Amino acid sequence: MPIASQTLHTLEFPKIREQLARHTAFSASRELALDLQPSTDIHEVRQRQELTGEARTLVDEVPDLTIGGARDVRRAARHADRGGVLDGQSLLEIAATLTATHTLRARLTRLDPTLFPLLVEQATFLPHLPHLEAEITRAIGEDGDVLDSASSELAHLRREIRIAFGRLQEKLQNLITSSAYSSALQEPIITVRNGRYVIPVKASHRKDVRGLVHDQSSSGATLYIEPMAVLELNNRWREMQAAEAEEVQRILAALSQLVASNAPQLVIAVETLATIDLALAAARYACALRAVRPEIVEIGVGADAPLFLTEARHPLLDPRTVVPTSIWLGGDFRLLLITGPNTGGKTVALKTTGLLALMAQAGLQVPASLPARIPVFGHIFADIGDEQSIEQSLSTFSSHMSNIIRVLRALEEPEDWALEPPPALVLLDELGAGTDPVEGAALARAIIERLLELQVFGVATTHYAELKAFAYNTPGVQNASVEFDIETLAPTYRLSIGLPGRSNALAIASRLGLSAELVERARSTITREAAQIEDLLAGIHHEREAAAAEIRRAEELRADSEKYRDRLAAELRAFEAQREAEIEAAHQELEDELREVRGQLRRLRDEFRSVSLSRQWLEEAEQRMAEAGSQAKAVMAKQAKPQPAQPAPTGPRPLQPGDTVMVRSVGLKGEIVSIDAEEGSAAVQCGGFRMNVALRELSREKGNPNQPAQRTYTPAARSVNLPPAHDVAMTFDMRGWRAHDVADKLDRYINDAYLAGLHQVRLLHGKGTGALRQVVRDVLQGHPLIASFHSAAGRDGGDGVTVANLVER
């Protein structure tokens, strides 16, 4: 059952529809917006809200999404279906609508169906008619005229028309420029009369020009004659034009017949486009209102109030000045009784509640903050009107009572609901006003009791003090009030639920300057019960203000604690980041040391390759190098977990020059030649070569480690037996190599060339991109065996060859 139209107008829902219609893109969706009705079916309402929610998400992601150039072509499609012939402009609108249809369909079907299920479903309803669209665009131009490409016959006829017209114009031009007609012509021009080309002839020279008279000037001095010489040419031109018009009409009829065969699908396309565009319009309207999606709830499901609006704003008021209202119904009470001064915002709160309920049931999002919950009401009744003058009080009361009687009868009549009927919402403004206060208050109380019996939800405004106590003592009814600032004598428009409005008449009079004697005299005439009620209200207001102050203080303390918590969390994050950076730096230092050890071993291996050492020794050295790497990684792992400090052991004396030590990283014994305490390294003579190693890599050989050295070691000159030089080519070809293969092989070749006694070598790397040449020269730049290098001469290879000079032995 739809919501009564009187309620829609009372709550100004048509204005909401007009604002929504401004966000639509074409006439079909605009009609849907202007005809939008709130639904009373909870499943339909939820589906509408879901569609609007999907559209708003899509609009936020793709703000420029539209339905393109769609038009409402349903009338044209139905006209064609009845056998009518469409003109070119109507066919163009159909083609534009089909283009918009398949474009929107393609965009929507690409969406994630788990996020946009309803929009994707709507897209599947959009028909795909590429043949009809292609036929129309092939035959109809952008101006609505039929194109030559529409048929070969039309193209042929238009060529013939152009030829006939050219011949006609040429003949007429010859006539008006000939000497035979120069004296007879009024002007040497060509014009048209009755669709045929003629020339203006002086009436006095009518006999000089043979032809047909088609018209004459208003003065009768000029006759418009079609010369006999061009009669056949004019006829031919007109015949071709008639044939062209016939062919154009045939083409339009064929296209109209094609439209007629697809008329049902075109109607579906327009209606689906209108549904989608209405959802997009609702999304844009929600953005403009800063609205939120309300939760559509069922009565009796959950313990919270089913109607709960947080900071709700009336959508027709200026958003810059409107004061938000939080209001709820359900739970402990179903009826809310609002009291307070005139122009204090009671009626606005009433209208906001009803209007937002209508918007939610129409599928629109509501201007409020989260949380926002709204049930689906089967009835929404509103009796809202401004108070009239005393002379019209009887008519005002009668009008209000007539509306209330109609509301009660509608609520008491049984409805044909398949399930339990949905709840009703009743909004009553100035309940019981317009009559004697005593009788009015009694009527208001009886009406509220009846509404409680009917288990409806309701909001009512009143000025009667008796109803405040009634609401306080009656389960299911709750007091509320709009606040009033005594200092400024102005309303604040804030609604306080649970607190009845105070009578501010005496306070305002005193504030305005009325003598204290008169104020006290007036106070003494108030009945004892009324005075007690006012005193009670004053106490409640005082306690409410004290509680509000405590809440504000608690909020300030909570904000301070959150601020300190955030600061401590930031300091903790900074400390952890610093610790991680220090650990990373320690790891990097160990990696650098390990890299240095590996570099030393690689250089030793390259040097030992040239001297008389066995392959077995090299293999053992490489194995020891791997073990050294494993030891370094173990050290790094220990470094990641800080170990507790150990007491410094009392060990043997420090290493000194002359001590025999084992170099653990390579597994060789040697004798310490010198020690650099600052660098933490020592020069060790191992057989025929000397190496610099870190002190931590040395361990004293077994003997008497505590016995001090009795002598200083003076290194003696030692000789190294180099292997006999073998044949080494002066040219080293690296063309086609990868850059990472060059360094080791080139270094080995330079060593071989040096041992072979070569003074100069030619390195072939080619030109190419220059990357290989750069790698070669980077190796040569820091090589100890290279004195200098340069590019070869042009005839010897130029930049593709590098000539390197070796140091003298």
Please, could you describe this protein's structure?
With 809 residues, the chain is α/β, with parallel strands linked by helices. The chain folds into 5 domains: 5-129 and 262-289, MutS, DNA mismatch repair protein, Chain A, domain 3, CATH 1.10.1420; 150-256, MutS, DNA mismatch repair protein, Chain A, domain 3 (Orthogonal Bundle); 298-503, P-loop containing nucleotide triphosphate hydrolases (Rossmann fold), CATH 3.40.50; 655-704, SH3 type barrels (Roll); 731-806, Ribosomal Protein S8, Chain: A, domain 1, CATH 3.30.1370.110. The protein contains 22 helices and 23 strands. The strands form 5 sheets. A 6-stranded mixed β-sheet has the order 10-11-12-8-13-14, sandwiched between helices. Strands 18-17-16-15-19 form a 5-stranded antiparallel β-sheet, with no helix packed on it. Strands 1-2-4-3 form a 4-stranded antiparallel β-sheet. Helix 4 (42-61) crosses helix 12 and helix 5 runs antiparallel to helix 12. It is flat and about 125 Å long. Mean pLDDT is 81; it is low at 387-394, 610-615, 640-650 and 704-725.
